[in-house]
Amino acid sequence: MSHVAHQSSAETIAQFDRYVIGNYRRYPVCLVRGEGSWIWDAEGRRYLDFFPGWGCNMIGHCPPRVVEAVREQVGELIHIPNTWYMEAQGQFAQLLSDRSFGGQCFFCNSGAEANEAAIKLARAHGHAAGRTKIITVEHGFHGRTYGALTATAQPKYHVGFEPMVPGFEYAPHNDLAAMEKLIDDKTAAVLLEPIQGEGGVNLPAPGYLEGLRKLCTERGALLILDEVQTGLGRTGTWFAYQHYGIEPDIMTVAKALAGGVAAGVLIAQKNVAATLKPGMHASTFGGNPIACRAGIATIETIDAEGLLERGKAIGERFRSHFERIRTARPDLVKEIRIMGVMIGLELTVDASTVVQKCLEAGLLINATHGTVIRLLPALNILDEQIDDGCATLFDVIRSLPATA
Ligand SMILES: *Cc1c(COP(=O)(O)O)cnc(C)c1O
């Protein structure tokens, strides 16, 4: 069944200009239909998508198992509140727990909400001992609600919205010595992304996460990992922390959690989870049957199609293409940072013209932190699609003017 566009991109854009708040910078394209790593606009033009759904569509647009599960579920029950038990939520929680550290789940609808829940849980857990301080890391990103925004140690997101929530402190990224100074007997938790996404696909320095885990344990602070972007297979393991032989006390996951359907989750070790008693925290739509059925179908797809292994191979294929680009234009390529299908190419120049030129050539990519090309391709992207898209990217970068 294909969606029929009833109006042109121009008509939709005009409608937005009149009726939708302009808080996003949007490309002048209205997308109407997607399949795998292809997506079509209202005029029928096809694009190759190296950034499907901003990381949410990690198993491609309209993954068949997810489409089927959601279709079936909407005809049975669309929503019931968390005053009742529902089969899909329990099953989804078990699948997530089994693939991580055997913890318990709280479901919500987004990354910011999951991080809000994590901050509340950490404070509630430490409250009796006077532990309320939350430490986060510079260039991190945790969402736009006040707690998550305060946790986001990037001044550009705070400006004009002050005052922030009290009780937060920030450490430079990959700086264990700074953490050693900040974590004290008033610290409830350290919250960070194992790999920074929005901050530019920044990998942890060797030993950093392991050292931080040890420090938190010694000082009685919780370690919260924000795996909103890295979670559910993005980096070649179910969760990024699994590369480092550590476990967090609390983990948050959203974006790809339910194959593109809105969903978020907090997973906590049982002793920490036990802090939350009835009435302390809630989400009306959290863990609804549609999101949970979609989530179950997402995990089934990754399992059935061997997509964790595939993710590693995709990352290496991108790496070899990027090495060719670097050889051709060493003046423009500063660093290649890849972990599975979490892919960063840091340039020496602003990356926004590259995004624009790729769009014109029918390739959708993202730029973050000014100079970093960020790709979050689907785990089921085909080799030909990778090669074709990288050829486009190569052409675009090769044609940029020489840097001084
Ligand atoms: C996207 C993102 C968030 C925010 O998620 P929303 O669903 O937009 O609230 C939080 N943390 C990380 C690491 C993210 O990438």
Write the layout of secondary structure elements.
Layout: H1 9-19, E1 31-35, E2 38-41, E3 46-49, H2 64-74, H3 87-99, E4 104-108, H4 111-126, E5 133-137, H5 146-151, H6 155-158, E6 168-171, H7 176-182, E7 187-192, H8 208-219, E8 222-226, E9 250-253, E10 264-268, H9 270-273, H10 289-304, H11 307-328, E11 333-339, E12 342-347, H12 352-360, E13 363-364, E14 366-368, E15 372-375, H13 383-398
Parallel strand pairs: 3-13, 5-6, 5-7, 7-8, 8-9
Antiparallel strand pairs: 1-2, 2-3, 4-10, 9-10, 11-12, 12-15, 14-15
The structure holds pyridoxal-5'-phosphate.
The site of pyridoxal-5'-phosphate (PLP) has 15 residues, from helix 4.
Strand segment count = 15
Which ligands are bound? pyridoxal-5'-phosphate
Radius of gyration: 21 Å
Percentage of residues in DSSP E strands: 15-25%
Q: What share of residues is helical?
A: 25-40%
Q: Which structural class do the helices and strands define?
A: alpha/beta
Q: Domains counted in the coordinates: how many?
A: 2
| Helical stretch tally | 13
Structural description of this entry:
By secondary structure, the chain is α/β, with parallel strands linked by helices. It folds into two domains: 9-64 and 306-398, Aspartate Aminotransferase, domain 1; 77-304, Type I PLP-dependent aspartate aminotransferase-like (Major domain) (Aspartate Aminotransferase, domain 2), CATH 3.40.640.10. 36% of the residues lie in helices and 17% in strands. It contains 13 helices and 15 strands. It has helices spanning 9-19, 64-74, 87-99, 111-126, 146-151, 155-158, 176-182, 208-219, 270-273, 289-304, 307-328, 352-360, 383-398; strands at residues 31-35, 38-41, 46-49, 104-108, 133-137, 168-171, 187-192, 222-226, 250-253, 264-268, 333-339, 342-347, 363-364, 366-368, 372-375. The strands form three sheets. A seven-stranded mixed beta sheet has the order 4-10-9-8-7-5-6, with helices on both faces. It has a four-stranded mixed beta sheet with strand order 1-2-3-13. A four-stranded antiparallel beta sheet has the order 11-12-15-14, covered by helices on one side. The longest helix is centred in the last third of the chain and has 22 residues, at 307-328. The chain starts with 8 loop residues before the first helix and ends in a 6-residue tail after the last helix. The relative contact order is 0.16. The protein binds pyridoxal-5'-phosphate (PLP).
